[in-house]
Design goal:
By secondary structure, the protein is α/β, with parallel strands linked by helices. It contains six helices and seven strands.
Length: 188
Amino acid sequence: MKLYLLFFILFFGQFSYGQVKTKNILIAYHSKTAHTQSLAEEVAKGSSSVPGVQVKIKSIQQTTTKDLLDADAIIIGSPVYNANLAPEVIKFISEWPFEGNPLKDKIGAAFVTAGGISAGEELAQVNLLHSMLIFGMIVVGGEDWTSAFGASAITNESVFKTEKLDTIFLQKGFRLGKRVATIVKTMK
């Protein structure tokens, strides 16, 4: 009986003292044609596959400052426009809280959708990561060299010109979400 009571106190005591905390991941995206939204949903599936994380997925129009502040990790998605982020995403980031450095040490990651191969997807990803670095965030790329800057998808060229994203791109989104969730769980 004493051993059971000791176990109960040690195990449940962790929760009351905050030693075991669910990590919050925010996935915010802008999507005009639903391609970026599809990739965002796959990133969310990957993040949700890791126990101990709570995932919130929202369009940037629905995302609040509180969402940003409550998140332990922020993953941003944008379509690529002229080798850059969508103007709506640039505006969204320019409105992030800056004073007092409230986003410092949060994990940050990026995903984008582009019309064609070499249409600027890596430049857009790096622009997102640069912005996150300005806010003091710790940026994370994809799982390996094939997605070094995060996840990306091609939506309007050759074999990739279909209604739905190709499986290879969905897998990259899933793996990015899973990687971020795994890393954020190790952070204090």
